[in-house]
Amino acid sequence: MYDVVRRIPRGTVATYGQVAALAGAPRSARFVGFALHSNPEPGVIPCHRVVFRDGSLAPGFAFGGPERQRALLEEEGVVFRPGTGDPAGAAGWRVDLTRCQWRA
DNA sequence: AACGTGACATCTG
DNA sequence: GCAGATGCCACGT
């Protein structure tokens, strides 16, 4: 499970459902979120690489703020798209899952 | 030991 | 297509 999250390549993001599926729990996306919340190994578990199915993070529950996450992901090469009239979750910033979603 | 709740996702109406 | 309800696993009370 944590190993799966750790396995997320740099510059890509994975959805809770995706991680859950890889972890062997296709319907336990919530469990994934809880696991990340647990964050047994801070600094090792890239919570910011795990996003909603919409491509956004949990607003307010990010490690240090939505901007921080955007900065990190952007730094890793993840493509962000500004609020194209559909602001969702984190400050209306969503990751381009069509290009940056991690595929096993 | 049991009930309720929680970083989501998916099905049905 | 949108809105509401349900399921999953683990943790807290």
TrEMBL record:
Presence of keyword Transferase: yes
Entry superkingdom: Bacteria
Family annotation (PROSITE patterns): MGMT
Keywords for this protein: DNA damage, DNA repair, Methyltransferase, Transferase
Keyword match Metal-binding: no
Catalytic activity: a 6-O-methyl-2'-deoxyguanosine in DNA + L-cysteinyl-[protein] = S-methyl-L-cysteinyl-[protein] + a 2'-deoxyguanosine in DNA; a 4-O-methyl-thymidine in DNA + L-cysteinyl-[protein] = a thymidine in DNA + S-methyl-L-cysteinyl-[protein]
Methylated-DNA-[protein]-cysteine S-methyltransferase DNA binding domain mapped to chain residues: 2-78
GO molecular function, one term: methylated-DNA-[protein]-cysteine S-methyltransferase activity
CDD domains for this protein: ATase (cd06445)
GO BP annotations listed: DNA repair; methylation
PANTHER family according to UniProt: 6-O-METHYLGUANINE DNA METHYLTRANSFERASE, ALKYLTRANSFERASE-LIKE PROTEIN 1
Protein's name in the database: MGMT family protein
Organism listed in the record: Bifidobacterium vespertilionis
